[in-house]
Write a structure and sequence with these properties.
The complex is a heterodimer. Chain A is an all-alpha fold. Chain A is 63% helix and 2% strand. In chain B, the strands form two sheets. Chain B has a four-stranded antiparallel sheet, with helices on one face. Chain B is α+β, with helices and mostly antiparallel strands. Chain B starts with a strand and ends in a 17-residue tail after the last strand. The chains are: A mainly alpha, B alpha+beta. At the A-B interface, helix 8, helix 9 and strand 3 of A face strand 2, strand 3 and strand 4 of B. Chain B: InterPro entries: N-reg_PII, N-reg_PII-like_a/b, N-reg_PII/ATP_PRibTrfase_C, N-reg_PII_CS, N-reg_PII_urydylation_site.
Chain lengths: 443, 112
């Protein structure tokens, strides 16, 4: 048994916590973008994913994806055997590289959680919570765990087999979730009133807070994916920062040109697009390459958000335009911008051939098609049996109230606000305390 | 007696209140309202989707006054509310048949 390296272990445990924080961050990022009557349901779909996927990971998820780490074997490169199901007796085992196996398993658990949660953004305001949980269980089982094995598992057919490069989750996480999100948006259909009512975000500061937590946690996501604290993790961390910075600027410049104003939601969305795009590439490109990836992702994703209006599908919070498109950009650009010293192979722009570009494109297509088809079938089966959508009247009344018996905000106890003028003066007569209307009567 | 109603920009409320106070107006009623005139709302952009917000927040100020003071009150509201930019609002006058002070039962001008 290899000796456990405390430095690497400390960094991976820290990274696991950072990646976990991304899901509550995602909840706020998504929650702020919904209408106020659906904010809690959005938070609950994310927290629900934390609940069910974490447990599945222990029962059999880790085993299906990575049981070779503890002596299991890959079954045709498609998934691993169940020799690590339940994760019993793994407390002492160190894996190659000096990590306790549970540190690796815990880190990867957070990826399974957030990938599933990402999908929820496409079906804001209209999914039955119970049906969402059932979807999360089946999709994680039939799609996430196998695809993680294809891309990252020892013997996985895409990663080890074909040589698809995905450092931290462009294919396994973002394309996977983005394609599933599109399928769900299509099966569930449009929100009542969409696109006539465009349903603007109810709390942009919440969106920015969530984006900030995602950005923070993403350092664990990307720099932790080296599974060690070393030079490569440093490359991943720096690339993550500069790609994201470039993407923020890319997105808001597009808005500035098209609409005359750089927006807060654009800055937050650009950050996520950049983080997504650099994820697969963060340890295969130089910082200048990372800036190029981020800038391209910021510009292209910004242009893609209006596609849903043109094509007529209601991906409520643009999971497709940000995660799917961002993931495709990062995964494919590895084929152009990889440098040999980091990726063992040069991309096309650094004198390499088209081979890597082709392999990367293949990885994108395979994961996208598999995830889309499976998600569509699972969602369709749920819709036809127990139903996936809430009733239209419940949707109009507000899913927070009808699914969770709660309201996100209570303004009734704060009383009427005096219109946005200067602060009330002592000379003004006080409002009647029992006044419940927004009228203020003096004299 | 007349009811002078002004629908004005929220930021001008303090100036209007001061102007009425200077005239010796004893009381007024203020409510938050929404509406539009020639200003026609504004446009917001969220991820490229443009939203036209038709109804803008305004403040409605109502003063019941003696007929003799109507012109002064209308002038005070209109002048104090004016910024010169679009969306400054409107002031109008309607007749009032009777006023009762609830506390004492006084009626008419005495009740103002």
């Amino acid at each position: 048994m290899p000796e456990i390296d405390s430095g690497h272990t400390a960094w991976i445990l820290t990274s696991s916590a950072l990646v976990l924080l991304m899901t509550p961050g995602l909840a706020l990022f998504y929650g702020g973008m919904t209408r106020s009557k659906g904010v809690l349901n959005m938070l609950m779909m994310c927290f629900g994913a934390i609940g069910v996927v974490s447990l599945l990971w222990i029962f059999y998820g880790f085993s299906l994806a990575f049981s070779e780490e503890v002596g299991g074997s890959s079954i045709g490169g498609l998934f691993s055997d169940l020799s690590a199901a339940g994760m019993r007796g793994l407390f002492e085992t160190g894996e190659e590289g000096g990590l306790p196996i549970l540190a690796f398993a815990g880190f990867q658990m957070m990826f399974a959680v957030i990938t599933t949660a990402l999908i929820a953004g496409a079906i804001a305001d209209r999914a039955k919570f119970g049906s969402w949980l059932i979807f999360a269980v089946i999709w994680a089982t039939l799609v996430y765990f196998p695809v993680a094995h294809w891309v990252w598992g020892a013997g996985g057919w895409l990663g080890e087999g074909m040589g698809v490069l995905d450092f931290a989750g462009g294919t396994a996480v973002h394309i996977n979730a983005g394609a599933a999100a599109l399928a769900l948006a299509l099966v569930l259909g449009k929100r009542v009133g969409w696109p006539k009512e465009k349903m603007k975000p109810h709390n942009l500061p919440l969106v920015l807070l969530g984006a900030g937590l995602l950005w923070f946690g993403w350092f664990g996501f990307n720099a932790g994916s080296e599974l060690a604290a070393n030079g490569i993790s440093a490359v991943a961390l720096v690339n993550t920062q500069v790609a994201t910075a470039a993407a923020v600027l890319g997105w808001i410049f597009v808005e500035w040109i098209r609409f005359g104003k750089p927006t807060t939601l654009g800055a937050a969305s650009g950050a996520i697009a950049g983080l997504v795009a650099i994820t697969p590439a963060c340890a295969f490109v130089e910082p200048l390459g990372a800036i190029a990836i981020g800038a391209i992702a910021g510009v292209v994703c910004s242009l893609c958000v209006s596609l849903k209006y043109k094509l007529g599908y209601d991906d409520s919070l643009d999971v497709v335009a940000v995660h799917f498109v961002g993931g495709v950009i990062g995964s494919v650009l590895i084929g152009l911008l990889a440098v040999e010293v980091l990726a063992d192979e040069n991309g096309l722009l650094y004198g390499g051939g088209v081979g890597l570009l082709g392999i990367q494109t293949l990885g994108v297509v395979v994961v996208a098609v598999y995830s889309f088809v499976m998600a569509w079938l699972i969602a369709f089966a749920i819709e036809k049996t127990i139903g996936f959508r809430v009733k239209p009247e419940d949707e109009v009344e507000g899913i927070d109230l009808t699914e969770h018996a709660e309201a996100g905000y209570d303004f009734t106890s704060t009383g009427p606000s005096l219109v946005g003028s200067a602060p009330a003066r002592p000379a003004a007569a006080p409002a009647a305390p029992e006044s419940a209307s927004s009228e203020k009567v003096a004299g | 007696m007349k009811l002078v109603t002004g629908v004005i920009k929220p930021h001008q409320l303090d100036a209007v209140k001061d102007a009425l106070h200077a005239l010796g107006v004893a009381g007024l009623t203020v409510s938050e309202v929404q509406g539009y005139g020639r200003q026609k709302g504004h446009t917001e952009v969220y991820r490229g989707a443009e939203y036209t917000v038709e109804f803008l927040p305004k403040v409605k100020v109502e003063v019941v006054t003696d007929e003799l003071d109507v012109e002064k009150v209308v002038d005070a509201v209109a002048t104090a509310a004016r910024t010169g930019k679009i969306g400054d609002g409107k002031v109008w006058v309607t007749p009032v048949e009777e006023v009762v002070r609830v506390r004492t039962g006084e009626r008419g001008v005495e009740a103002l």
